[in-house]
# Entry
Amino acid sequence: MTTTASELITVADVDAAARTLRGVAVRTPLLPAGFLGDNVWLKPEMLQRGGAFKLRGAYNFLSHLDPAARARGVVAPSSGNHAQAVALAAKLLGARAIVVMPTTVTAAKRSGAERLGARVELAGTTTADRMARAVEIARDEGATLVPPYDDPLIIAGQGTVGLEIVQDLPDVATVLVPVGGGGLSAGVAAAVKLHRPHARVIGVEPSGAPKLSRARQVGTPVKLDKTASIADGLLAVEIGHLTFAHHQRYIDDVVLVEDAAMRRAMRALLDRAKLVAEPSGAITVAAVMERRVELVDGPTVLVLSGGNIEWEGLSSTMG
# Structure
């Protein structure tokens, strides 16, 4: 599948998403991370409604649905954070939400979706399992499928994270962003590069789920045989085709991080920044702590994608 330049999101797309999200999504602050360096900043999306960045894309997508389609409901396949975001967006817009989560979903992410009024179904352990069941529900119940990442409205919504970074820190030199299916990293990279072409944007993914790294090696998305990591939000077996096109245009590099480093980063964020991050959210901090990325002159921003982890999960993950 080939993606043309005309399918990539634009400044206008991200600006439109920002207007849609005004008064709905939290404009998360940039917090100084002195424990990592004098000019390192954190973008804490665990402070976002729903506990992660995902509301930005989900609400942007649902807000563009025809009212009749919204009335029929929406269905979302998700490892957890997308499910909660779709549940919240649907609640805010008065729509019915069904979410399909893995049988291994964490208690925090399942209960979060249920508290927001979503009907939760469990299906297998892979992205393909969840997508297959979501497609069945969409067909049988007339619901609209809300893609987790490979959609221009989703990417533009997530791109508002990058827009806020360049607005709040105009001289930003480097942005690190987690990579799962690629919606956040594609949106952030596009928004940053379209406004600050000379800034570096670096993707960070678990060593056990190197889907972007492999795709960049061969020049096209490839499906991994399996993925494994404590970063359950970053375990897609294949980068999205539309998101990959954005990565190829706007991402400067991608680095890999081990699970042990994410645990240390979670501890550092708790101890030094008083922020609770899930492993996926702490991965950018891990990349800096492990010196996977060389800091250059100018401000560095680390996107913390979320903090949906309960006490039991936090204590067991961190040992």
Observations:
- The chain has two domains: 5-51+151-318, 55-145.
- The chain has a mean pLDDT of 94.
- The two ends are 43 Å apart (CA to CA).
